[in-house]
Amino acid sequence: MTANELFLKHAAKHLAQYGGNLRLLREAVENGDVPDAADEIVRPYVQQLKRHMGISGESEEDGFLLRFGLVVPGRIRGIRPPVAVLTPERGGFSQQRLEQAAAQVNRLRIALQLGRHFFGGLSTDTLTAFREISAYVQAATSSDDAWVEIHASLPDTEARALAGRAIGCLDAPDEPQQLGIDILGCLANYRQHGLGDRIADLLQRDVFWPSSLYRDARDEIAAALVQRIDEANGLQLNHLLLALAWTRGEPARRAFVEWRNDPPHWASRLHVPAEDYLHHAGWTLDANGQRRDLISVSCQRIALRANDSPTRLAVPCRTETEKRCPACGGPLAWLFDFANLPGQFFSGDRAVAPRRILCCLHCASSCPAVFSRYQSNGTADWHPATKSDETSNLGGRPPTVRELVASPQPTFAAAEPFGVEDATALGGVPMWVQDADYPHCPDCQNVMSFLAQFDNGSMTPCEEGVYYAFFCAACRVAAVNYQQT
């Protein structure tokens, strides 16, 4: 695939954010709701909407879009035909209804402008152009694995060219900046060496968010970030600290050790110690100021199975046990059961990790963390350090069986929230929905290592949030916590 082809796929995915508006338009057309241009009854309403949009500084001349806008308030309210809601008997074209109509027209206008900008040769007919845009969006739909692989396998020359197009989006006023950031994020998180030399272009433009763009940046980039941090204020200070953490190199380690030993003038403006920012990038400092990784670079997706056929790499998840939660009285469950996986997946930095993760799925979603003690034989017991105020269990977390994908996923694929649609995985970096939250082992107080995560959004029906599993190899303690939007 060439850089241009992938850029257009990104553009189509960017337009997918208007999918709800395109769907509303399609349904209105299919139901025959959009009035005809020759309809004398609706002309005063079209002029009223046109005047309203002109006064608000969002003038619109496209007759089809304006006529579609007329049906929006009625469709919202379930009125048939929708345009009837504008009659005096139904309340007329009130200010609220004008704003509802204008909002939909504006969204579709932006989508049309972007479509014409990116995809040459769209029809001059508005409705036909929207149908063509919808086809581009549909064609760009792909699975997580395919989308990640497209970027991971892109030849270096094409990756550099794509990064250049993305950076161009940051500079050109007629390009959506978020599109550029999204492309750079995919290159940074899905490719083995991240953005490489192109990180200097971000520093030059004062682009520090998302911070994972700076993964494994050169030492001189890290040094420049340290200098900027000493002069920063407010939100930029947080972004700079996170960007420095993501450089993940020796200059960052030295800086955070120095700030630990001699807190700088800006430390009082932080809500956590400066070194806690390292957690977002998957590492920390030990008591001696040396680097300790909190994640495993070995990462395998735990995917939905295509069918119910047996698989050698099956991973039962959220499976209830006979044990009861001491806090809420509900069943304890194995968040993950890796017991039947081949030993190759539990070697190296996972050699002493638990093969089963015990927790209360209910309490984990409402307290800082659920702790357990685990044994090498696969058993585990509730740890009394768990502090849950729950007194009853609401249930509603059905079990599921997933499949470990043997081929590795890029370590940092889930570095940004919703960077992948299903973040369920063994190893790699957690997909933090909120701030990074690695539990401290209740026995030794050290920051615990990340093991795996279960993305509830992949369930059917869809559920909220992500469960994260951790372990302390020295103390044989596991932990589960939870985040949601």
Note the overall shape: globular
Total number of helices: 14
Strand order, sheet with most strands: 6-5-4-9-3-10-11-12-13-7-8
What's the number of domains? 3
Number of strands: 13
Rg, Å, rounded: 26 Å
How big a fraction of the residues is strand?
15-25%
Mean pLDDT level: 94
Our measurement of the CA-to-CA distance between the termini, rounded to an integer number of angstroms, reads 35 Å
Structural class: alpha+beta
* Helical content class: 25-40%
**Helix/strand order:** HHHHHHHHHHHHHEEEEEEHEEEEEEE
Low-pLDDT ranges: none
Biggest sheet descriptor: 11 strands, antiparallel
Task: Describe what you observe in this structure.
- Helices cover 37% and strands 15% of the residues.
- The protein is built from 14 helices and 13 strands.
- A hairpin with a 6-residue loop joins β4 (314-324) and β5 (331-337).
- With 485 residues, the protein is an alpha+beta fold.
- The strands form two sheets. Strands 6-5-4-9-3-10-11-12-13-7-8 form an eleven-stranded antiparallel sheet. Strands 1-2 form a two-stranded antiparallel sheet.
- It folds into three domains: 3-139, no CATH class; 146-292, no CATH class; 296-483, no CATH class.
Keywords, separated by commas or semicolons:
14 helices, 37% helix, alpha+beta
